[in-house]
Sequence to fold (71 residues):
Amino acid sequence: MLNTPGTIDADYRGEVMVILVNLSAEEYWVHDGERIAQMIISRHEKAEWEEVVELKETKRGAGGFGHTGGN
Fold:
């Protein structure tokens, strides 16, 4: 599976598809009814943004990528 996990926008109304790639040297066929993917449905939230001149420092800011302090 490529591009996993993928996100489907809340307002998308088209067909849902998955991208598959066979990296082996052997041919493989996907058949009707074969389980190749799964979907998780989650809540879609809307945020209200507040513009500020400068962000306050936090303990989590030093590690980068939303760092929690763990390894």
Notes: The mean pLDDT is 83. The radius of gyration is 20 Å. The CA atoms of residues 3 and 19 lie 7 Å apart.
